[in-house]
Write a structure and sequence with these properties.
heterodimer, A: alpha+beta, five-stranded mixed beta sheet, 10 strands, globular, B: alpha+beta, eight-stranded antiparallel beta sheet, 6 helices, 8 strands
Chain lengths: ~170, ~210
């Protein structure tokens, strides 16, 4: 038997991807953005979307990139996972991000987007009846997250609050 | 038509001049403050996808010290003055003559943080006022904020408004380098200016260039 070494599949900002073991999936430098992991333990498949904005109605031009928004991004990720053989009733979620990095005393609403992103993600997952098994959201620190589809564990790194696995 | 598609080479040249004048004034301010030679590179103006923007200065996970402000008024956007943590440590150590200072020491209300914040204020303030003089536009800075965190987590704030229009941004990146007595590089700081899409027509018109016709 060949022992295949896993790769780490990167998800960029406003981007999504899907992996199977032994690969892992990761996104780095989440600030106000939210990383949403959806996974199906029964067939060991996982997807991640790096959401920037809470709702596609915020688009002021024709934006084809669905992964940018919580509503269209989560729907697109569910579709991608269904194409690989899962069903949304089997999906579970883990989420991280949505920090408030700055005070922005004079800033616009957009600068307070972290908590709004988290709320929008939760609303979408609830509508899709996908339970959130664990989360690390809010606060004021940036995060890098990595999900392992074979253990269903999400590893989170911050620069000043260390590392944790949820 | 997407705002990025309207950008012609002449517009990029104009933005290069914007970076030149802004960072040039900041370099002069820094030089007279530190009484040291400051080198400025020719600004790098590019249209980049967000994914590429997130990987500048050594990757989205790279820990940086940033002083950032929002620009309001007749044109809008965000400005970031950024150093890697190692360089920011050296910069403040030199400035305060305190070899023990580090940005990792966050529990202390260290004067080094205030020094960095003030330095960032002065630099971005002189960049912005030069920009205002050059364009004759009324531009107001928001209160600058200091952050020590991952590059991607910080710079993504500058992409938020732009992301409502596009997956690409125009980045005006100018590097200031502090040189010691023997002309050896001590620290290198990046100025990133990210303008809001609706600022471009105003800016180009103010500088006498057509846009999107």
């Amino acid at each position: 038997m060949v022992n295949k070494t896993g790769e780490i599949v990167k998800v960029g900002i406003a981007d999504l991807n899907v992996v199977k073991p032994p690969d892992m999936i990761r996104t780095s430098g989440l600030g106000s953005c939210v990383g949403v992991v959806l996974y199906d333990e029964s067939i060991q498949i996982a997807g991640m979307v790096h959401v920037m904005l809470p709702d596609s109605s915020l688009a002021k031009a024709d934006i084809k990139n669905k992964a940018k928004f919580a509503d269209t991004g989560i729907q697109a990720l569910i579709k991608e996972l269904e194409k690989r053989g899962t069903r949304s009733v089997r999906l579970k979620a883990k989420i991280a991000g949505g920090a408030q990095m700055f005070q922005f005393k004079s800033g616009t609403d957009l600068m307070k987007i972290g908590p709004r992103n988290v709320a929008a993600v939760k609303e979408q997952l609830q509508a899709a009846r996908i339970p959130i098994l664990s989360e690390d959201t809010g606060g004021s620190s940036g995060r890098t997250i990595e999900f392992n589809p074979s253990t269903s564990l999400l590893h989170i790194r911050t620069v000043d609050k260390g590392e944790q696995t949820i | 038509m997407n705002y990025i598609d309207k950008i012609q080479p002449i517009h990029l040249d104009i933005l290069k001049e914007v970076g030149n004048i802004g960072a040039g004034h900041a370099a002069t301010a820094l030089s007279s403050l530190l009484n040291r030679k400051i080198d400025m590179k020719v600004p790098n103006v590019r249209i980049v996808p967000f994914a590429e923007m997130m990987e500048l200065t050594g990757g989205s996970e790279k820990e940086v010290v940033s002083v950032s402000l929002g620009i309001e008024g007749e044109a809008g956007g965000n400005m970031f003055f950024m150093l890697t943590v190692e360089e920011a440590n050296r910069f403040i150590q030199k400035l305060m003559n305190d070899e023990s200072f580090t940005f990792h020491d966050r529990n202390v209300h260290n004067i080094g943080f205030s020094a960095m914040q003030e330095m960032g204020n002065i630099l971005s303030g002189s960049y912005l006022s030069a920009l205002g003089d050059f364009t004759q536009l009324k531009l107001q800075p928001s209160v600058p904020e200091l952050a020590v965190d991952m590059f991607g987590a910080i710079i993504s704030y500058g992409l938020l408004e732009i992301s409502q229009y596009s997956d690409y941004t125009i980045v005006i990146d100018t590097i200031l380098t502090e040189m010691d007595e023997g002309n050896v590089e001590i620290v290198k700081g990046h100025f990133f200016l990210l303008l809001s899409p609706d600022s471009f027509p105003v800016l180009f018109e103010a500088l006498g260039a057509g846009y999107g016709k």
